[in-house]
Amino acid sequence: MTGILAGLRIVEGSAFIAAPLGGMTLAQLGADVIRFDDIRGGLDSDRWPVTKDGRSLYWAGLNKGKRSIAVDLRNPKGRELLTALITAPGEGAGIFTTNMPARGWLSYDELRKKRADLIALNIMGTRDGAAQVDYTVNAITGFPMVTGPANHRGPVNAVAPPWDLATAYAGAMALLAAERHRRLTGQGQRIVLPLQDMALAATSALGYLGEAAINDVDRPRLGNEIFGTFGRDFRTKDGKYVVICIFSDRHVDALAKAGGFARAFAAVEKEKGVDLKTDAGRWTARAELCAIIEPWVAAHTAGEVGAVLKEAGALWAPYMTFRELLQDKDAVHDNPLFTVIDQPGIGRYPVAATPLQFGAAPRDAPRPAPLLGQHTDEILSGILGLPAHEIARLHDEKIVAGPR
Amino acid sequence: MTGILAGLRIVEGSAFIAAPLGGMTLAQLGADVIRFDDIRGGLDSDRWPVTKDGRSLYWAGLNKGKRSIAVDLRNPKGRELLTALITAPGEGAGIFTTNMPARGWLSYDELRKKRADLIALNIMGTRDGAAQVDYTVNAITGFPMVTGPANHRGPVNAVAPPWDLATAYAGAMALLAAERHRRLTGQGQRIVLPLQDMALAATSALGYLGEAAINDVDRPRLGNEIFGTFGRDFRTKDGKYVVICIFSDRHVDALAKAGGFARAFAAVEKEKGVDLKTDAGRWTARAELCAIIEPWVAAHTAGEVGAVLKEAGALWAPYMTFRELLQDKDAVHDNPLFTVIDQPGIGRYPVAATPLQFGAAPRDAPRPAPLLGQHTDEILSGILGLPAHEIARLHDEKIVAGPR
């Protein structure tokens, strides 16, 4: 590997999104990330979406560039092999897990008996270790009650899972922070990251709890309007949608130029007594701004509106479906982020590398996700130093498995 | 500072969410994070939500534990001071910015003339440097077209900003990766992280682009249903809502026990010919499962339903508003994540520390956000070594400012 994290090894025991995506983030930066699963597959080995042949596109997306080892986790010998792998000597070893148990062979206390400076990240549901997922964590944050159409009653769930994403990247960050600490002090440690606390900390950071506490209000459901400035969706003549926002002076001028709104905006400023160059002014006059923009967008196609907004330097974007995005020239086909790769058992499609570009290391093209157990033998041999006959015996005894 | 990142210094030039939250993430782990702003304030100094006195709760949320220096960024002497601060010697210095310019005094090329091993993270909108925000990036990902009530037409924006959150934590991770690289090689570097690429990479990771490419479908809008397994919101007798999910065998049994559904679930399995212990089985029979659960939830209060689900170990959560969350005993008042602090100019309210618990360093209680320019003098003196009379002159000439 040539990435910025070359030399770092992570053993990952995971499922669903947060832990696998955290591990993949490090793998795509050049770390050797070894995901272990039970020989029968993990909780998410076949998770939907799947292809017509039942291959998981979910697994393929979240495990790119990792190596996979499949071991019978119920077998004492299998557990022994994994313990040896997790605690193998080497500068960069760490473990990244979903719900690491408090007791037993995979607990931090047991593992560090074999390697005192082990670093382990334990992603858990709540701080008490109770199971939680993005959906349940999201429910208590308050966001579902302010998401969705303004006239809607009841909660609206997030589809892009904000707390899994945050936990994945914050978890990867935490492992590097601990690795820095070990480099400076020689000391390993266990890190705990509860998904629920991640969501609560971010909700606090975003000011929602402060607003509830200090202003004693629940922010109303605002539909697609952006609170405290200007932004909303607009429908085009051909039934598409665009989002148009204003976050700075420059965006006011650009939008005015794009739609020929300069005079109308000035009239709004005069009538409402506001300055559209301020957040508060835009927010106060948002209905009037919409009344100006709406008919203009409705009278043009998405192509026409987009061309003019882009030319003027406005802050806007078209709404796309996943299939439209897939076919988008700028976002996907001309974007060096994406490479068409052949994912074994699934086929060829554009797949993203890391979004991070490091000046000191070229960005590696994305590598496929492994098949379950694809690297079992090379890991047993290359890292644990087992001879071929012993690996063969482990297969015979069904303690390990190769690719299925 | 006593945190895990003690010794690391970051100078942050930022606005809005991604960069300030990334900087705060490191500050809450013990890094010395110095946010610089123009003496007139940054783009987000007064951003809503604000208190009745116009103090920004948004700023207070996203800048906790940082130091603030306020400098006239249009003044050459002001720029010189900041250049000296950013490139000051020290093991851990790095810079974390939103839209670092390609040219001029704040460009990486200019800064590294003063310090060859400088690490800089440049968060930008698109890979070409065009402005983008979470809302515009989200529009093209495809998610708004599948979020919200199943019968809704048109896009539904995210309120919790998934791509800002991802960029914040991935950015913090990237700075640590570069610091590791510098520790190993002595080499600094510039890192580029486009918000749009972050969103596209995550959308790819989550399998949505693979599904569009391989299965050639746009996933339909599913309302609050969780794709490929079982989960949805349910309305209680007292007009509250709960989310109930099934992600594993254990959750099927727990839910059956909570509601007394064992017989009904068995009947569904027989009638539909499915196994509710599989994702596919639950997905296929989701309407039947809802028909069993819905009347049960509707016949009980949120308190009753919650008590029974919790007792049984089901995967569930109540939906809360921000004010309900603020008053929640378990999530906030009894949660060591939160401390009631006094935010100058705003007041006392519960504020979150980092959600990360490192075994090798106790978690620090959250510290307030600085007032703009609160640490100007101590930074000029402590880091740049300026004598008191020179600092006084900088104030007189309005090149720097103290707290406002």
List its salient traits.
homodimer; 404 residues; alpha/beta; Rossmann fold; 2 domains; seven-stranded mixed sheet; 17 helices; 13 strands; 16% strand
Describe this structure in words.
- The structure is a homodimer of 404-residue chains.
- With 404 residues, chain A is of the alpha/beta class.
- Chain A has two domains: 9-203 and 333-401, Crotonobetainyl-coa:carnitine coa-transferase, domain 1 (Rossmann fold), CATH 3.40.50; 241-318.
- Chain A is built from 17 helices and 13 strands.
- Chain A has helices at residues 18-27, 57-62, 76-86, 108-111, 134-141, 162-185, 195-205, 208-214, 249-259, 262-272, 279-284, 286-298, 302-312, 322-326, 329-333, 376-382, 388-396, and strands spanning 9-13, 32-38, 67-71, 94-98, 119-124, 189-194, 230-235, 241-246, 315-318, 338-343, 347-352, 357-358, 400-401.
- In chain A, the strands form three sheets. In chain A, strands 6-5-4-1-2-3-13 form a seven-stranded mixed beta sheet, with helices on both faces. In chain A, strands 7-8-9 form a three-stranded antiparallel beta sheet. A two-stranded antiparallel sheet of chain A has the order 10-11.
- In chain A, a hairpin with a 5-residue loop joins strand 7 (230-235) and strand 8 (241-246).
- Chain A is elongated and about 85 Å long.
- The two termini of chain A are 26 Å apart.
- The model of chain A has no long low-confidence stretch (mean pLDDT 95).
- The interface between A and B is large, with 153 and 153 residues.
- Strand 6 of chain A pairs antiparallel with strand 12 (357-358) of chain B.
